[in-house]
Amino acid sequence: MKKDVMITVDSKQEHPDRDDADVYNFVTEGTYYKEGGNYYITYTESNITGMDGTTTTLKVEPDAVTLIRLGNVSSLMVFQKGRRHTSEYNTEYGTIEVGVTAQKVSVDMNDLGGNINVEYIIEVNNQLTSFTTLNVKVQ
Questions:
Q1: Is the distance from CB of 77 to CB of 103 less than 8 angstroms?
Q2: What is residue 92's DSSP assignment?
Q3: pLDDT 10s digit of each residue in the chain, 139 long?
Q4: Which of 25, 45, 61, 111 has its Cβ near the most Cβ atoms within 10 Å?
Q5: What is the pTM of this model?
Q6: C-alpha distances out from residue 90 to 61, 72, 73, 81, 95, Å
Q7: For residue 21, how far is the Cα from the chain centroid?
Q8: Within 10 A of 17 (CB to CB), how many other CB atoms are there?
Q9: Cβ count near 54 (within 10 Å)
């Protein structure tokens, strides 16, 4: 099972030191498939997100979602409710160590598509930098 799909991404990133939030809402074409019992969602980022030239893959497991980015921006973030994961975020300007703690991971996926909702905290150098809500719909 590998098919072309429409992917809707809604993301809101709130920062403790700012009153405004970064909001990204877009619809893009992508690929959806199942391998080894896990679902995979892949799409190419655009200049809307500031990551033009980057391919994003979401690996969807029953209890975790892993976000993998390769290209101009490279990173691997694991979202598992109540667990803190550390990863490196590689940009053209250098590498940043990032701590990610998921407060909510909700997965409702099947062979036709589905929804993912993740709420997580990002820390850089052990300092809270943002609270993010990510919603992904595959159809």
A1: no
A2: T
A3: 899 999 999 999 999 999 999 999 999 999 999 999 999 999 998 777 778 789 999 999 999 999 999 998 888 999 999 999 999 887 778 888 899 999 999 999 999 999 999 999 999 988 999 999 999 999 9
A4: 45
A5: 0.91
A6: 24, 8, 6, 24, 4
A7: 17
A8: 8
A9: 18
For residue 51, give the CATH number of its domain. 2.40.128.20
Number of independent structural domains in the chain: 1
Q: What does residue 128 show for φ and ψ, rounded to 5 degrees?
A: -60, 125
Six-digit token pair at 21? 């939030």
Identify the domain containing residue 87 by its residue range.
Answer: 2-138
The CA–CA distances, whole Å, from 67 to 17, 49, 74, 78 equal 26, 15, 10, 6
Q: How far apart are the first and last CA of the chain?
A: 14
Answer whether 119's CB lies under 8 Å from 131's CB.
Answer: yes
